[in-house]
Amino acid sequence: MPKGYAISDTKNWTDFKVIDFDLKAPADDDIDVSITHCGICGSDVHTISGGWGPLKVPQVIPGHEIIGTVTQVGKNVKDIKVGDRVGVGAQVGSCMHCHPCTHDNENYCIGDGKGHMVDTYNSIWPDGSIAQGGYSTNIRAPEQFVFPIPEGIKSEHAAPMLCAGLTVYSPLYRNNVGPGSRVGVVGIGGLGHFAVMFAKALGADVVAISHSANKKEDAIKMGATEFVSTKEDPEWSKKFLNKPFDLIINTASSSAVDLPGMVSALKTQGRCICVGMPEDMIKLRVQDLAMRGAFLGSSHIGNKKEAVEMLKLAAEKNIEPWIEVLDMKECSKAVERVSKGDIRYRFVLKQDLN
Predict the structure, then answer these.
(1) For 238-269, what is each residue's pLDDT tens digit?
(2) d(Cα 262, Cα 251) in Å, to the nearest integer?
(3) Half-sphere exposure of 35 (CA within 13 A, CB side)
(4) CA–CA distance from 144 to each of 1, 22, 74, 77, 86 (Å)?
(5) I want to staple 150 with a disulfide (CB 3.0 to 4.6 A). Which of 96, 125, 306, 315 is the partner?
(6) Which segments does the entry list as coiled coil (predicted)?
(7) pTM for the complete prediction?
(8) Cross-strand partners of 7
């Protein structure tokens, strides 16, 4: 029977207990995966600590940056076979019939009355079974949400790409970032360090924008051509009035970021896409947007096509995230360190329950 590290009380969100759990009932398009690695995401901390609200299920096994080996496939599975190395990200289900799902936007599923979006954990399948995540031994998911991992990427490097990487790759891809683009990345952390590396790999000129100056050396190594400390230079955005950004990716998980400054640093009709998810609300005057004709938006993970393209790019460009690998039993210590920002820049858990 599958086992995993679970949380049952948001007040004791580092108190993991190993539990047995059941996988969803198998379907003809399902793939069973024996998990070898799982990244830790800031979303895990927001969920198990109650920052995003009460738990939706009695016990939550977090983890949605999953790598493993296929052990079984349903009869309708076409492109993945037993023994393949695959990944599963932050979503394991959608209705597949609503307008977003039928237009390669399954990551924006709105449901069709029979099915709905299913997050990888802290979520419930349409049949009522509980979806559990990757701090565990096994997962079962439909082929649409299982991604082949290219040979050129190590498992521990691929894991954090499946949420952190895809979350920033999707807006880069959808905003046509390439040679000649100027991209600003706000926040050099788990998401931001991927944004710098992927934007660079796509051919953009990348500027790293961080609260403090202590990540400058790291950001330059990742591929940024310039670094800005908003703490040391509160009027930082003024230096970009005559060399504005086509796109700014805001990865900060705090609502206290200088959003007006970001908007003012955009070119006319430039875009600021927020992918960090603060627990409280952000505020911005419409007038700030109007003065640039700017667009403020967000983005939710990515679709399968984008995941496959991202992994291909990572293999071709030899992109390696900055990670620290721990045994899965160290998940309590790891999530606590993530909550304190004590990681450069992503934890990956290695299986120890088998």
Answers:
(1) 999 999 999 999 999 888 889 999 999 999 99
(2) 12
(3) 32
(4) 25, 21, 13, 9, 12
(5) 315
(6) none
(7) 0.96
(8) 60
The answer to whether 95 and 115 have CB atoms below 8 angstroms apart is: yes
- Output the six-digit token pair for 13: 């969100």
199 Cβ neighbours under 8 A, 6+ residues apart: 172, 177, 181, 183, 185, 206, 223, 249
Tokens (6 digits) for 172 = 């880069």
Phi, psi of 38 (to 5 degrees): -150, 125
Q: How far apart are the C-alpha atoms of 303 and 105, rounded to whole Å?
A: 6
Look up residue 15 and give its amino acid.
D
Q: Evaluate whether 326 touches 350 at the Cβ level (below 8 Å).
A: yes
Provide the sign of the torsion angle of the four alpha carbons 166, 169, 171, 176, taken in this order: negative
Find, among 160, 96, 82, the residue nearest to 303 by Cα. Answer: 96
Q: Is 117 left (phi over 0), alpha (psi -120 to 50) or beta?
A: beta
Question: Which position has the token pair 């403020």?
Answer: 296
Decide: helix, strand or coil at residue 293.
Answer: coil
211-247 pLDDT per residue, tens: 989 999 999 999 999 999 999 999 999 999 999 999 9
Say if residues 328 and 38 touch (Cβ distance below 8 Å). yes
Owner of token pair 């120890």: 352
| Sequence-separated (6 or more) residues with CB below 8 Å from residue 110 | 95, 98, 99, 100, 117
CA angle 62, 344, 136 (to 5 degrees): 20
Sequence letter at residue 344: R
Instruction: Let me know how many helices (H) and strands (E) the chain has, helices first.
Output: 9, 19
* Four-residue CA torsion sign, 137, 141, 143, 147: negative
The amino acid occupying position 192 is G
DSSP three-state, residue 121: coil
User: What are the two backbone dihedrals, phi and then psi, of residue 139, each rounded to the nearest 5 degrees?
Assistant: -145, 150
Q: Tally the C-alpha atoms within 13 A of residue 348's C-alpha that lie toward its C-beta.
A: 25
Amino acid sitting at position 188: I
